[in-house]
Batch of 2 targets.
Target 1
Amino acid sequence: MRIRILGAVAAVVAATLPATTLAHGSDHHAGPELPPWQQASDWPDRIVSTFAGDPATTISVNWRTSAGVTGVAAEIALATPDARFDQQARSVAADSETIDLATFNRAGTIIPVTHNEGLPGASYHSVMFDGLQPDTLYAYRVEGAGGNWSEWFQTRTAPLSGPLRFIYLGDAQNGIASHWPRVIRAAFQSAPDARFILHAGDLVNRASRDLEWAQWFRAGGFINGMIPAIPVTGNHEYEQLGLTEADRQRMLSFMWRPQFRLPVEQDLSPDLHETVYEVRYSADLSVFVLNSNEADMTEQARWLDERLTASDARWRVVSMHHPVFSSGRDRDNPRVRDVLLPVLLKHKVDLVLQGHDHTYARGAIGDDEAQVPVANAVAGEGGVTSMFVNSVSGAKQYEFSADGWDDYQPAGVELARRAENTQFFQVIEIDGGTLRYAAYTADGEPYDLFALHKADGGAKRLVPSPQPLPETRTFENSLPYSGTDN
Ligand SMILES: [Fe+2]
């Protein structure tokens, strides 16, 4: 209890002291020694680019400093070959907010945040650079207190159309400091020109635990500054907070919105803002992010139906954390499937990218109109309506459900590829009427490959892997699994 009171006091102190006093958080916080890379300082850190506006003409950037820092800015310039390209930079004032980390204010009640006892607050900053040119390389930097600037990061705006690729990662969540860095870095090595990284929920294990976010940002490092993130909320981005068992409420991490500037869809209720959104990346691709943590998914299903009806993007990808077809043993999400599957199939959503089950599963629902059966396993070509993937990038691994996807036969879905006990990253490439999908293991070797071909206005055709794929990985044929840290 004493620690909790100290935490609240530290938070109040953090909110009232000038920034310079707080430059060295370890001098002030009452908790255990922080790793130096967790402590906020006068220097900008946790820098991540996101999409909050049109990706062809805007770039959003988020960063953090010690508490109480205001009046900072970010600069952007065309990334030309000139050594002093920065002479042509323009400055944009940041939106800044200081938040307590050790306590949460819910309607005037100060609630201690488990795992953050004694932490000082921090300031979160963001800008949205606008008026940019499509498919153009820009350099930007962000400011901390006292004129401390980040390095210049280079990032490219979205093209209006044309080939592109992106990275998709399932749950990081566990072993973020130890086992996840090799995966996001291997993904970057495999697709250094990826246009964005889709994180399909459970980025961390404990929604508001600052240490885990520190680990997440450290693992991505400069990759986060160069390749925008599209984050999806998982169940672990939610946490029960309250003074007593009775008044605990399940809440989105209070760090989510400060650290990720994301699109605000005005036609959705405010609770869903920055967790349900569309990124219309180019004429060729739109990504629809859902928040599958909601008990009632009907509002999102209606929104998705409207957006898909209005969308003329050549390829449409939906991402949510909880899978339509579960692959973890004894798991199922009828709450999500019953409401969303009809919408996904009505619009023949090309790809549904999910997490949650800590296994790998990939399979499709066929297209009867195409009059060719959907390919199962790795043989044959077939008409496909929607392809579904569950994946995991972190260390935690579950057993695959005993009957595979057999229970879902009535929905017409065929499981094509599966794995246990393996960390994955995926690279998805769009090139006109062709979508190429590759799931890689952490050593950079392909594990699952397929392509979809879409004729103009016609049915999609699935083309299985042109090359032999490795044997299915299971707990039986891999090194013993013994849990994870975190
Ligand atoms: Fe998870």
Note: The chain is about 15% helix and 30% strand.
Target 2
Amino acid sequence: MQCPNGCPSSMEERKEEKIFHRNGEPIVISDLVMYVCPNCGQESMPLPSARIVENILNGKAKSTGKFTAELYEVSSV
Ligand SMILES: [Zn+2]
């Protein structure tokens, strides 16, 4: 898959942790396959990943646990 920004190298498949919001609540999806451009960092979500996200946001998937993390806001650094 080529980068939409026209970079010469093709995008790499990477598993990432992504935060989404469902009913105003943050949820984390880990090991979500994303395409990332090694040149400019542009990310693109492949269709199977988009389906997974859709299912989770629609409440069709079971959560496997809670994710807690420290929050840092840019304005406080
Ligand atoms: Zn690129």
Note: The longest strand covers residues 25-36.
